[in-house]
Write a structure and sequence with these properties.
By secondary structure, this protein is of the alpha+beta class. The chain has 7 helices and 4 strands. The chain has a single domain, classed as 3-Layer(aba) Sandwich (NADH Oxidase), CATH 3.40.109.10. It is globular. Bound molecules: flavin mononucleotide. Flavin mononucleotide binds next to strand 3. This is Cob(II)yrinic acid a,c-diamide reductase.
Length: about 210
């Protein structure tokens, strides 16, 4: 049990190029969504919702928007960095089986959200935990997940009829994959390296 959990944690990858487009059995999707919904949340507010996007036209429209935002980001790069970025695939929206848009409703359970009075972001943290549960459960089910954040929230709200006060936190691509890479794409392309976990540890105070 412990070994399988650690396996899922370390095998999890952000997937862009390895989606097959094969169907996801309904029971598997249910388990992944139930795992996401089992996440902890501030004041048990459960501020998340999951919009399952299968419609091809919606995904194509979103993909066109992502390409535009990719160009916006690329315009701020120069030299070797621009060159590296040009080789990096940033989404698998069209190749994956489906998308799941995970949203945040700051009003759920409010005004007295237990534990959020001093840290408004605690609501968003809760949504991210649901996303991570989904990601790990999908990995355990041998599915790939790719988080796409090259979008404007207002665009996704309009595209999917999401009310203005509900934030689309993540556009996730989901589906069977040929394999999961062992090394993250950004490392393989020399964009950034994962630092040793020991470097992230501080004892008693920040400086050590
Ligand atoms: C909040 C968030 C947003 C991300 N957005 C994108 C994205 O738009 N496109 C992309 O290719 N990867 C995106 N990623 C994936 C990261 O690049 C990836 O997690 C990181 O490079 C480490 O690789 P790994 O997830 O395979 O370990 C995102 C990840 C997070 C947590």
């Amino acid at each position: 049990m412990t070994g399988q959990l650690y396996d899922a944690i370390h095998q999890r990858r952000d997937v862009r190029g390895e989606f097959t487009g094969a169907p996801i059995p309904a029971g598997v999707l249910d388990r992944v969504l139930a795992a996401a919904h089992a996440a902890p949340s501030v004041g048990l507010s459960q501020p998340w919702d999951f919009v399952l996007v299968r419609d091809r036209a919606l995904r194509e429209a979103f993909h066109a928007h992502v390409r535009q935002e990719r160009d916006v980001f690329a315009a701020g790069l120069a030299g070797e960095q621009a060159d590296r970025f040009s080789r990096i695939k940033i989404d698998g929206v069209l190749e994956s089986t489906m998308s799941i848009v995970v949203t945040y409703d700051p009003d759920r359970g409010s005004p007295a959200v237990l534990g959020r009075h001093a840290i408004a972001d605690a609501g968003l943290y809760s949504v991210c935990l649901a996303i991570q549960n989904l990601w790990l459960a999908a990995t355990a089910e041998r599915l790939g997940v790719g988080w796409v954040s090259f979008y404007r929230e207002a665009y996704v709200q309009k595209l999917l009829d999401i009310p203005a006060d509900i934030r689309p936190v993540a556009w996730l691509c989901l589906g069977p994959v040929t394999h999961l890479e062992r090394v993250p794409d950004l490392e393989r392309h020399g964009w950034r390296q994962r630092r040793p976990w020991q470097d992230a540890i501080h004892h008693d105070r920040w400086q050590h």
